[in-house]
Design brief:
With about 250 residues, this protein is of the alpha/beta class. The protein contains eight helices and twelve strands. The C terminus is likely disordered.
């Protein structure tokens, strides 16, 4: 099955086609804060919805494929860019419904944690992503014997609040930071964590589309139903965090 995976949860637009052997058949990644694309967006020559279709058309034609060759869709649900996620989710839902395709929504922090699933050690992993000012999204996972389970649900907090949460849970955790394409800001955040005694690995955001696709491939393989119903498609929604919690 050829699977289309889309991720616009950050300052980028990433799409890829994944083949039966979990190989990348074709992909296209655009970082929106690069000067040429930022200028195009500001001049309204290129909007997120148009951009995704241009990318999709490019990788399909480049690989000699058509929309009808796609057998399923994966979409990253965030947390992240409010506009980016809503636009890509609307496009993914429309394609899934009109082409009668399977669809799977994947949380971005989960996709990041999933990249560690094949490590031999059993451990806790705290995934961190930029939020606003000195606040960060964070979520804790337990990775054990080739499985991954959410140990603490998505919250926001500063470095001290993240540290206190881990202390209260009485665990030791590894840390991974879901990267940023503002290098100065990324280095600044890493330094903040280092100064607090926390060593963080850095995860490349551009890998999220592929990992979300792999998660979807595995989900579809385990799912006995051949197709998802429209009710399942309609039920997919972005992941955001407000004072009342995630929804």
């Amino acid at each position: 099955m050829l699977l289309l995976s889309i991720d616009t949860s950050g300052s980028y637009s990433c799409i890829c086609l994944i083949g039966d052997n979990c190989d990348i058949v074709a992909e296209n990644n655009i970082v929106l804060n690069e000067n040429k694309h930022f200028k195009e967006l500001n001049n309204k020559q290129l909007v997120p919805s148009t951009l995704i279709f241009k990318q999709l058309d490019g990788i399909l034609s480049g690989a000699g494929l058509n929309l009808t060759d796609i057998g399923g869709i994966a979409i990253t649900l965030g947390p992240g860019s409010f506009t980016g996620i809503r636009v890509s989710l609307s496009i993914a839902k429309t394609l899934a419904y009109s082409l009668n395709l399977k669809i799977s929504g994947v949380e971005s922090l989960y996709a990041c944690a999933y990249s560690f699933i094949n490590k031999s050690d059993n451990f806790y992993l705290t995934v961190i992503k930029e939020f606003i000012k000195d606040k960060f999204y964070f979520e804790i996972y337990k990775i054990e014997n080739g499985t991954i389970k959410k140990f603490k649900s998505l919250e926001t907090g500063n470095i001290n609040e993240i540290t206190c949460s881990i202390v209260q849970l009485n665990i030791k955790s590894n840390f991974v930071f879901l990267g940023s394409y503002n290098k100065c800001k990324l280095n600044e955040n890493i330094q903040l964590f280092n100064n607090s005694g926390i060593k963080v690995d850095v995860f490349d955001n551009l890998r999220l589309a592929y990992l979300s696709g792999i998660i979807a491939v595995n989900k579809f393989a385990d799912d006995k139903k051949e197709q998802s119903g429209f009710q399942d498609i309609a039920g997919l929604s972005p992941v955001y965090v407000y004072s009342g919690g995630a929804f």
